[in-house]
Design goal:
Elements (H helix, E strand, L loop, with lengths): L1 H32 L18 E6 L18 H7 L4 E3 L8 E3 L9 E3 L5 E2 L10 E7 L49 H11 L9 H5 L5 H24 L21 E5 L2 E7 L5 H4 L10 H7 L21 E7 L3 E6 L6 E2 L20 E2 L4 E6 L3 H10 L11 H12 L1 H10 L5 E3 L2 E7 L12 H17 L2 H8 L4 E3 L23 E4 L2 E4 L2 H10 L15 E6 L7 H11 L4 E6 L2 H10 L4 E7 L6 H4 L8 H4 L10 H11 L5 H17 L2 E10 L6 E2 L15 E2 L1 H11 L5 H43 L1
Parallel strand pairs: 1-13, 19-20, 19-21
Antiparallel strand pairs: 2-3, 4-5, 4-6, 6-8, 7-8, 9-10, 10-13, 11-12, 14-22, 15-21, 15-22, 16-22, 17-18, 23-24
Helix pairs in contact: 1-21, 9-10, 11-13, 18-19
Amino acid sequence: MVGKFILACDRALTLMQGLSALLMLGLALAFCNAQAETINSPHAEGAEKTNTLFTAFAQRSPKFLDPARSYSTDETPFTYNIYEPLYGYHYLKRPYELIPRAAEKVVAPVFLSKQGEVLGVTAAPEDIAFSVYDVPIRRGVMFAPHPAFAREPDGTYAYWPIKPGFLQDKYSLTDFKQTGTRELTAHDYVYAFRRLASPKVASPIYSTLAQHVVDFGAYGERLRLTLKQQEQAQKQASAASTANVSNLDWLDLRQTGFEGVEAIDDYTLRIRVKGPYPQFQYWLAMTFTAPMAWEVDRFYAQQGMAQHNLSINTWPAGTGPYMMVESIQNRRHVLAKNPNFRGEPYPCEGEPEDRLKGLLADCGKPTPFIDRIVFDLEKEAIPLQGKFMQGYYDIPQVDRGDYGVAMIVAAGDSQEKAALYAERGIQLPSTVEAQMQYLGFNWLDPVVGRGDTFEQQLKNRKLRQALSIAFNWEVYISIFQNDQAQAAFGPVPPGILGYQPPPQGINRSVYDVVEGQAVRKSLDVARQLLAEAGYPNGRHVQTGAPLVLYFDSAAGGGTNPTLEWMRRQFAQIGVQLDIRATDYNRFQEKMSRGVAQMFMWGWVADYPDAENFLFLLYGQQAKASKGGENASNYQNNEYDKLFLSMRDLPDSPEKEAIIARMIEIVQTDAPWMFGLFPKSAGAYQQWVGNAKPTQMVRNTLQYLKLDTTLRYEKINTWNQPIWWPLIALIAFIALLIWPAWRMLRQQQVRTAMGEAAAPLSTKSRDN
């Protein structure tokens, strides 16, 4: 028993010694860490000091980085920074302005008649059979280093054809030892256009371009026939065990072309478009029309590449400011500065407030400013937000404008969060985007539509105007959009040529102009219009029956707060609103048939031209009769004539004047309640420079810069470990154990002394 007791005492002593050591270690760590880096960083040691921007992507890796197939917003941070379309958009100017990227300049088309005669710029649209764009290509533009261009000393391609088994250990471009490059030419754009028509690519833009580019649709059909012949040849070769069968997987588009797109010489691209189509220039700013080197297309067509995740979708090759240097699917992607990029100068002009915001300080300096862009997967929003607030992400997500909006809303709801954002110096710049949301009236409906007689047309118009006054979009924006939208006066949003700010653009049918500002007309005015429409106090002037209107919704009914709020808005003037809720498929069907009376709809611009919004009210786009995008089925002869003339005009004062008249027409007719233009907002750390949120400019990474010294200092300040709880815990445990240890120690000493005395006493008795 004594031995066991002594053993227990030894263990207690050992425990106290361990706690003492742990306490000393805690104190040492706390002291040392006062001067050390943070210990919880998700990045490699010292990464915060490098000229690297850290951001995230959600859910999955980008699916398509092939410019011919890419159409998703989560892909654009990669595609628009790796590839160079002919044109782009000025980073700072609003309205959006086309600028050359790989082209030397933005060119005006030459108009031709059916006979091929050159027409003047003032030619009537009906006389123009073709628009010819001769686009000069910059000289000296080089592709980023890529194995597809690598050559042996004898001039043969290093990786064409690859030998059987060569790809066994190849899963990344970095596994290929040799790379090469060459100069960009007009032929690369020709090849890219041909790929858009290839059935092997299945580009989503093919059908649209086939409507406008000469011979493009027929070329696609010819390629389908060629592909069938190739597949038959491949089967025959495979059956005969012919060598290099894999080479037949490539459809060599250099062999056959079409009239609509050709290279006049190495540095001149000619595109022939049917009729006048000024909006075509905007397609040249999309990555659909980015260049594609035939060597790259051929390189990835080889057998085994796809199985090793080697493709244009994972390892693209372009001439833009960045190139892909690391790609781990659903985990991590890294862009690095293209060493062959020429260095485009930072813009020197912008909006008036841009200079005050410091956005012009880098005027003329070569871009890009940042060396590397790291995209890490973050599946959950909370960890992403947490790392951003710790400083470990410079931008939450490059392609998202809702993070900034959410943070602005959160700051408005919480003083604590507002103070935190301010203390951390978070930048939350916002902008009104080129998109809109509206409440539409069905022009085919006898109550809220056009009306059969002239008298009924006037009455129905007054009804729509009365409803437009009663529906307070400013309050709607405050409640349901958290003030992150702008009330619309017409169909054209800010940033688009043709938009007129107050007081010129104010909708006089709904608002009064007071000291240059829009003030919504009173409900008394709405009630008077309602009475003139034949519904005094919301009841039919003859029958006395209440006016019941029907709102078709795919968002559910019943207690939905938005729909309940809408009911109350119309009830203010005595109008009853009946919600007809359904699923989205049923809703779409009703819209296609033109049987919905009232509905909510929206539109996001494909390109920054008023035509992309005004066509939504063009009679020939009626959804019910034409299958178009005119969901209201609105038709006005004057509007339609003006649309046709406006559509074919380049940006000019004449075009602006026509747009102004078209907006005036629909403001009076009120086929829509011109609802709102949503805002987007970026979220940037204080050390991110040149940040300006935009939906239309996609190559924004090229213009951003970092203050890495400030980042390093702030991250270390914000993420110092807190050691005192650990030290306090150790001390508390020690205090609890100390009395017991003392007692054990004393008992140990007494026991030891007693055992030493016992033998001596026995010896005395024996003597």
